[in-house]
Amino acid sequence: MDDSTTEIEKQLNELRGSENFIGFCAFDLFLDDDESRRKDGVLKISRHNHTPETGFLKFTFIVDVYGDKLIRKQVLDLFASFQDTSADSEMDPNFMYIRPPEPATQKDKAWFIGEVFFHFDSAGAASKENVVKFFIPFLTLRLPVEFSDLEWWESSADEKNLPQKKSAIKSITDFIKSKF
């Protein structure tokens, strides 16, 4: 590994900082049109602040690929949709996907770990309500995934009554309408 790569990894680790874990859920990732060919996974959500108002939400997808190279490639190809700019819309949130490196050890080969970062400019934009109403539906438009109900690490009194699941397009449409 050269010095520039080492420096980039160091900066990324500093950017990630300490985890501020806010929630998690299980999900089914569909590898193709055959619904029986799906992988179980866990989504971990954490919040990272640059200032009290700005920062990013990190959505970490963890999929057990059992060390199978073919399944790893299928999962990696599905996550490559985040790098497909033809699917972008001006209504999309400001996000970044980091392609995971090739696993170095046999233990690392058992898991696929993908991270999607969503930048926010106000504390309200990173609320639990927006995670449910906007970010999760956005992810379902990019990935063939079905999420179970989110479990929150901490629960505040004002966010206990989160809305029920809707279709991804309906949720995003309602969110956008509420902003105008």
Which short descriptors sum up this protein?
alpha+beta; globular; 31% helix; 7-stranded antiparallel β-sheet; 180 residues
| Helicity level | 25-40%
Q: First CA to last CA: what distance?
A: 49 Å
Shape label: globular
Average pLDDT taken over every residue: 78
Total E-strand runs: 7
User: Sheet with the most strands?
Assistant: 7 strands, antiparallel
Uncertain stretches of 5 or more adjacent residues: 155-162
**How big is the Rg?**
17 Å
Description:
With 180 residues, the protein is of the alpha+beta class. Helix content is 31%, strand content 28%. It is built from five helices and seven strands, in the order H-E-E-E-H-E-H-E-H-E-E-H. The chain has helices spanning 3-16, 69-79, 106-109, 128-142, 168-178; strands at 21-30, 38-49, 55-64, 95-98, 111-120, 145-147, 151-152. Strands 1, 2, 3, 4, 5, 6 and 7 form a seven-stranded antiparallel sheet that branches. Helix 4 (128-142) packs across helix 5. The longest helix is centred in the C-terminal third of the chain and has 15 residues, at 128-142.
